Amino acid sequence: MRYIFITKNPAQTRKIAAKLSREIFKLKSDKKAIVIGLIGELGSGKTVFSQGFAKGLGIKENITSPTFVLERVYKLKAKSYKLFIHIDAYRLEKSKDLIDLGFKNLIRDPKNIILIEWADRVKSILPKNCIKIKFEHKDKDKRKIWMNRKIK
Ligand code: ADP
Ligand code: MG
Asked: Best exposed site among 36, 52, 59, 127 by fewest CB in 10 Å?
């Protein structure tokens, strides 16, 4: 992964995330959903990133980790995109569990933006063009964030 950011507090992580989601939001929808996979240990900042990402999409609700419900769905107000789907794969054992949740239909709809925490648990069903973001916990407030996509 080529693009690296160092953040020194949660606000910086949220800001990068919001920048990315605003860029995505402006794109015309493609043939399939946009999928963003977040990878990193507990407390590395995946949910904090998700909060910034949702904010960049214009979502006003407070985003929390959908660890127990597995997924939460938010409405979007744009022509190209209708739903933001926040998935937490922490409790899933394997890719098939996500397929059982109807993941294939979600991915098929170009009007969806899907963000998955613990994406490494469901690697085999992530689309090829998945945006991948890896979080490394450096010290208390310092995180290293790797992406396979450039932010302008
Ligand atoms: P995960 O979803 O990866 O388990 P969370 O986003 O829930 O992690 O938690 C990250 C924790 O680390 C939060 O308590 C947050 O306040 C803290 N934190 C400290 N520094 C940062 C940073 N630079 N970026 C993101 N979170 C940070
Ligand atoms: Mg989380």
From this structure: 127
